Amino acid sequence: MRLSLIPSQLSLQTLARTFSRDEVAPLAREADETGIFPLHLVKRMGELGFLAGTIAPEYGGAGMDYLSYTLISEELGWADSSVRGFLAVHGSLVSLCINDWGTEAQKQRYLPRLATGEIIGCYCLTEPNAGSDAGNLETTATLDGDEYILNGEKIWITNGGIADLAIVFATTDRAKKHKGICAFLVETNTPGFVREKMPGKELGHRASDHAHISLQSLRVPKSSLLGQEGDGFKIAMSALDHGRLGVAAGALGIAQACLDASVDFVRKRRAFGQRIGDFQMIQATIADMATEIEAARLLVYKAATMKDALSAGKALPTTRETSMAKLYATEIAVKAASNAVLLHGGRGYSNEYPVERHYRDIKGLQIYEGTSHIQRIVIARDIIGKEGKEGI
Ligand code: CAA
User: Does pTM top 0.90 for this prediction?
Assistant: First the structure.
């Protein structure tokens, strides 16, 4: 495995780093306090080619490799998880999903506008009674002539309140379990698409737009079906294989931000007549944090590199590696954020310093797009294999 970045990846990393530090980070505290997503950044991310990501140029994409795209998520995660979360949903769960599964007409209709940010995407899988158990969703799709009628409720839909396009998962027959699930491309101005803000105040990601969506006898033409009838669950899972890599990279960014802030702090803060960074207990914490971040980075970059090989037809699916990257990166980032708050002492407990926000935000990454428990299920099932097919 190549361990160094090539020049095009390095220059995208520099571009993303400069954008994140100069344009995203300065807004993060206010966005967190007001709960208002800085929408103008969507347009900027479109201009910089971040939304166009790995989509092919014929559909308005930037045709970049997955590792480059992952570096962007890492840099955005360093600055603000709400902005990075926007990209994971819009770019990975929606654009890449249409890129993988859409018809030519669907790709032509949506991908170029998603790539510039002219339209915003959201991914409607989670329901009040189907979170981790996504195959058990209750939203129904009933065929009526040339249209499907959708009815149901979706919750925790990131970008839901601002999206123009939603990928909605619904079942035509609950008795068929996951094989009855279909995916639909729904334009959110369709009558029957009703959205409101999620109730309550979230622990983190306070600038993210999280919506509760009701589908009230919403009619979509048959042509809005993404993939075939019954493909919906596989489509949802394959989209999550893309999204989880972005979350893993975002967690890496948070962990790095926590390390950077801590190093800066322990160099400046003095106690008992010396820099606190000269105490061995503090040094041990910094050393462990840095080592775990490097290990997570290797897992995240490996999963991205394998995705590149997969899209070139040179590798097997990367589901296991993506879940390993998300599991490990989010778990070590939780630890890094907790230690960063501790190292900052009373200051870390206040939003005067960004580690307080990172500490709250990282819990979200450990939960959405599949909790750490779900990632362990995915990894273990891939290792152990289906009964009768062990070792294949
Ligand atoms: N790619 C393609 N197909 C896949 C797949 C993948 N990664 N993973 C599973 N499948 C296929 C399986 O091969 C199987 O196919 P067959 O029927 O042909 O054998 C089928 O899907 C069913 O698979 P399982 O038996 O493994 O399904 P399960 O019901 O046991 O569920 C699970 C598996 C891993 C627990 C899955 O339900 C899961 O990932 N749950 C978590 C859901 C999740 O991440 N939700 C987050 C929502 S999005 C969000 O949070 C962000 C937001 O803002 C919207």
Answer: yes
Per-residue pLDDT of 211-259, as tens digits, reads 999 999 999 999 999 999 999 999 999 999 999 999 999 999 999 999 9
Taking residues 351-365, what's their average pLDDT? Answer: 97
Tell me the pLDDT tens digit for each residue of 139-149.
999 999 999 99
- CA 317 to ligand 1 centroid distance, Å: 14
Interval 298-316 mean pLDDT: 86
Ligand 1 center–CA 336 separation, angstroms: 29
List active site positions. Answer: 369
Asked if pLDDT for residue 392 goes beyond 60, the answer is no
User: By the 8 A CB rule, do 66 and 188 touch?
Assistant: no
Query: For ligand 1, is residue 157 a contact (CB within 6 Å)?
Result: yes
User: Does ligand 1 come within 6 angstroms of the Cβ of 367?
Assistant: no
**149 backbone dihedrals φ, ψ, rounded to 5°:** -110, 125
Protein residue with its CA nearest to atom 20 in ligand 1: 234
Burial 307-340 (b: 16+ CB within 10 A, else e): bbebeeeeeeebbbbbbbbbbbbbbbbbbbbbbb
Residue 239 CA to ligand 1 center (angstroms) comes to 10
- Distance (Å, whole) CA 248 – CA 365: 8
Domains in the chain, CATH or no CATH each: 7-120 (1.10.540.10), 122-229 (2.40.110.10), 233-384 (1.20.140.10)
DSSP per-residue string spanning 211-224: EEEEEEEEEEEGGG
Regarding the beta carbon of 269 and ligand 1, being less than 6 Å apart is answered no
- Find out whether the beta carbon of 306 lies less than 6 Å from any atom of ligand 1: no
